[in-house]
């Protein structure tokens, strides 16, 4: 009788794949939940997922931001996904996702009027690679919006993704 | 014949890559049958967005996509997180060559009900109903060369 053990060393790419997946999944569910048409988000999924993953892997991504632009020009809600990197390069953290907490969080977000669109932004820690489909842009002002919560939504050995909700 | 396939998702591979594996499982299960490949590929293609969303939300870890194409009854799950490292890429599903009809049943987590309903509305082979738990006995009893050939190495 033989015994087999399976050991896998998690890499930065694994961390990036995990965090990108949780962030993309969270955005898709927020948009679906508040009534924003997800056609464009689904169409661009592969390039956005790849860009976020690559930027996390190179540790340049500071934050992903979801802005919802209502027909009356109001920008709300705004959801930020800051990424924190392990100071020592790698930590003991496992691959976790706070899916139950995210489901509870979504109940706090109100539906938006028909015709509301969305925009995605990323901010960076210094230099970053160029990624297809992404170009420089300017975020809407968050003046007057109140940050309601900051929580960790996903952990991995090399980084953690948080969520901050502004309304 | 009931089959289950489990596809490793993140952190092993992205939601996009995971969906490609799931789509290929469905298409390949029916490709030797009289069912039009184009129809299957078109139906699966229109699920690309919701498929990725189901994967990235962890929903397929608990609730499978189910292909019912008598004699095949195939449940496809994903596994996310640390367990994904211990999951091998799934093998193709034999037994579909005698299938003459098919339907793909999707799970509907509350948050995605509207977008999934919209995605499937014009496709008669896609459903959000509860999948039948068995396939018709006459079809289930049909001989299938591929299935026989694979006996002994199937789980």
Task: Give helix and strand order of chain B, one letter per element, not per position.
Answer: EHHHEEEHEHH
How many beta-strand runs of chain A? 6
Radius of gyration of chain A: 17 Å
Task: Determine the most extensive contact between two protein chains.
Answer: A-B, 34 and 26 residues
Helix content of chain B: 25-40%
Question: Looking at the chains present, what oligomeric state does this protein adopt?
Answer: heterodimer
Major β-sheet annotation of chain A:
6 strands, antiparallel
- Structural class by sheet pairing and helices of chain B: alpha/beta
The profile of the biggest β sheet of chain B is:
5 strands, mixed
Derived from helix and strand composition plus strand pairing, the structural class of chain A reads: alpha+beta
Q: State the strand order across the main sheet of chain B.
A: 1-3-2-4-5
**Low-confidence spans of chain B:** 138-155
The residue ranges of chain A in which pLDDT falls below 50 over 5 or more consecutive positions are none
Shape verdict of chain B: globular
Shape of chain A: globular
Helix share, percent of chain A = 25-40%
What is the helix tally of chain A? Answer: 4
Distance between the amino and carboxyl termini of chain B: 11 Å
Termini Cα gap of chain A: 61 Å
């Amino acid at each position: 009788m033989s015994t087999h053990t399976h050991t896998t060393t998690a890499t930065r790419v694994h961390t990036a794949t995990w965090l990108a997946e949780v962030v993309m999944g969270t955005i898709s569910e927020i948009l679906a939940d508040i009534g924003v048409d997800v056609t464009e988000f689904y169409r661009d999924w592969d390039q956005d997922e790849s860009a976020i993953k690559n930027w996390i892997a190179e540790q340049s991504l500071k934050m992903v931001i979801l802005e919802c632009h209502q027909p009356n020009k109001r920008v709300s809600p705004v959801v930020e996904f800051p990424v924190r990197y392990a100071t020592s390069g790698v930590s003991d953290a496992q691959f976790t996702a706070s899916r139950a907490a995210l489901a509870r969080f979504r109940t706090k977000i109100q539906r938006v009027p028909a015709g509301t669109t969305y925009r995605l932004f990323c901010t960076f820690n210094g230099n970053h690679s160029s990624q297809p489909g992404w170009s420089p842009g300017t975020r809407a002002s968050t003046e007057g919006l109140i940050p309601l919560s900051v929580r960790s939504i996903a952990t991995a050995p090399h980084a953690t993704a948080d969520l901050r909700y502004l309304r | 014949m009931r089959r289950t396939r489990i596809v490793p998702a993140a952190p092993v591979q992205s939601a996009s890559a995971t969906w490609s594996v799931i789509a290929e499982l469905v298409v390949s299960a029916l490709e030797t049958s009289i069912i039009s490949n184009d129809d299957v590929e078109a139906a699966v293609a229109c699920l690309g967005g919701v498929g990725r969303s189901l994967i990235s939300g962890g929903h397929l870890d608990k609730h499978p996509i189910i292909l019912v194409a008598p004699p095949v009854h195939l449940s496809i799950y994903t596994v996310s997180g640390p367990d994904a490292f211990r999951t091998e890429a799934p093998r193709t599903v034999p037994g579909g060559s005698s299938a003459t009809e098919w339907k793909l049943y999707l799970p509907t987590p509350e948050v995605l009900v509207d977008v999934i309903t919209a995605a499937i509305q014009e496709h008669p082979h896609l459903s959000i109903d509860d999948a039948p738990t068995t396939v018709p006995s006459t079809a289930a009893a049909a001989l299938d060369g591929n299935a026989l050939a694979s006996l002994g190495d199937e789980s």
